[in-house]
């Protein structure tokens, strides 16, 4: 599968300017190649890609809330998907207008208005024909989201894609995908145990071979440290993301099929797309600016049965590796691209645990 993410540094509240910046970067392409010639099957953009993220209140973000089907993000996604002939996933701040308020709209401490309108941090998914396929709403809210958004539903995390195979256009390959937005991969409100692994277990239980995560992930690095990294990834952030998928390294994968159309192999893999943003946004009321970690990446966790483990029944019977096809720098803007049929750039093996671990 050919997967692209667009990492860039949106300016808070500059929707038109951010769309122009995204278009410019897509036209620029990667390594001298235009994105059209790279023929991606999926393009993923960051969380709240065109509005920016660090709004301090409902009143601040209200001018940028969009209806699901008619807002500037939907229009851009539809036009871009048709032009690139690929599926597009892009984050946006959603408003859902309702006739009247309900008691449920005030659950979980959300910030919906008394008019009955509901607001969500959402991810729109559009197909090659410009049709809206899916709309995922962020399930686990970060404290910034809690000032204006409602929690989404876990049931919306999943969608089954149809992909035409390049070697046989008449054949469609159904791929179950699990969607997440940034904080979704963390423990709920940072209150449940770290090792509950809610999101990773959802991936395993749903038997999804494809995971798409749209992000506005912050970094603890200061401005000088980010500048020093330049085009190098924030490896502390990258390692933390991988750690949040630890169950994929320890439990046997049970999904059928493969994102690349292989239904016969004994090896299993789950592709994980981390689509983050870069740059910084001003803090509210004298607070420090919000700085973002960049480091967008396309990786896979793979399990291949060990020759000595006939009838392998757990991940300990498999050779487990982490493959990485591409990873962006922390402060870099541009395309992260992977062809998961090609050899990865990086391969990480699992070291055996010692008795003291």
Automatic annotation (TrEMBL):
Residues in CN hydrolase domain copies: 1-357
Gene3D superfamilies: Carbon-nitrogen hydrolase
InterPro entries membership: C-N_Hydrolase, C-N_Hydrolase_sf, Nta1
Pfam families: CN_hydrolase
SUPFAM superfamilies named in the record: Carbon-nitrogen hydrolase
PANTHER family tied to this protein: PROTEIN N-TERMINAL AMIDASE
Identification of the protein by name: Actin cytoskeleton and mitosis protein
Source organism of the structure: Paecilomyces lecythidis
């Amino acid at each position: 599968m050919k997967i692209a993410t667009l990492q860039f540094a949106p300016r808070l509240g500059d929707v038109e300017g951010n769309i122009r910046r995204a278009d410019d970067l897509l036209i620029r392409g990667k390594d001298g190649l235009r994105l059209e010639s790279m023929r991606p099957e999926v393009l993923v953009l960051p969380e709240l890609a065109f509005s920016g993220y660090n709004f301090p209140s409902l009143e601040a973000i209200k001018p940028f809330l969009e209806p699901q089907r008619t807002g500037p993000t939907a229009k851009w996604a539809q036009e871009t998907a048709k032009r690139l002939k690929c599926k597009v996933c892009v984050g946006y701040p959603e408003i859902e207008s309702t006739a009247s308020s309900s008691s449920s709209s005030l659950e979980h401490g959300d910030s919906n208005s008394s008019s009955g309108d509901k607001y969500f941090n959402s991810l729109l998914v559009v197909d090659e024909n410009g049709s809206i396929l899916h709309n995922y709403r962020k399930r686990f809210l970060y404290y910034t989201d809690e000032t204006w958004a409602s929690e989404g539903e876990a049931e919306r995390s999943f969608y089954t894609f149809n992909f035409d195979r390049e070697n046989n256009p008449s054949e469609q390959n159904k791929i179950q995908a699990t969607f997440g937005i940034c904080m979704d991969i963390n423990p709920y409100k940072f209150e449940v145990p770290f090792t509950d692994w809610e999101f990773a277990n959802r991936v395993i239980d749903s038997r999804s071979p494809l995971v798409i995560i749209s992000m506005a992930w912050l970094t603890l690095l200061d401005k000088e440290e980010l500048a020093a990294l330049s085009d190098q990834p924030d490896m502390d952030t990258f390692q933390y993301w991988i750690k949040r998928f630890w169950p994929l390294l320890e439990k046997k994968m049970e999904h059928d099929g493969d994102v690349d159309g292989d239904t016969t192999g004994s090896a299993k893999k789950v592709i994980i797309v981390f689509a983050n943003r870069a740059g910084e946004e001003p803090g509210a009321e004298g607070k420090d600016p919000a700085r973002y970690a960049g480091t967008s990446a396309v990786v896979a966790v793979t399990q291949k049965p060990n020759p000595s483990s006939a009838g392998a029944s757990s991940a300990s019977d498999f050779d487990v590796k982490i493959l990485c096809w591409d990873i962006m720098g922390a402060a870099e803007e541009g395309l992260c691209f992977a062809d998961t049929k090609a050899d990865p750039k990086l391969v990480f093996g699992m070291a055996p645990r010692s008795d003291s671990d």
